[in-house]
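Long-time lurker. I teach an intro course on protein structure, and each term I like to show students one example going from raw sequence to a predicted 3D structure in token notation. This year I'd like something fresh instead of my usual example. Would anyone be willing to generate the tokens for the chain below so I can use it in lecture? Attribution to the forum is fine with me.
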Amino acid sequence: MAQAIGRTRRRIATMLSEAFERAGVHVLPFDGDNLIPVSGHWKKEDCFRWETVGLKMVNHASGNSMGLAVGSWDTMTSILKSGGLDLTQERLCGWEAHARAGDPA
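-- Reply from a regular --
Happy to contribute to a lecture. Here you go:
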């Protein structure tokens, strides 16, 4: 049985949707089901702490949906604690999400 989706994943999904909207990328609706945290052996390895599976965006040229990958070196919890996230496009249809420090003022 799949693990129930909790508040953390739902909040990160909302934050990602808003970040993509700010970047002008139309992402098809999704919730925390698309966010997969690492588990088991992979928690000890130098790899993304979480990534998306099955996330789709709309290709502006064709209007068709296409796959979109997002991953982060920061944990979902650390992103929430930091007060936000930033997206960095590393390659075509691949993004990284990074924790953004809260406003120091």
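Some talking points for your students: Strands lie at 35-37, 50-52, 56-58, 65-67, 69-72, 85-91, 94-99. The chain has a mean pLDDT of 82.
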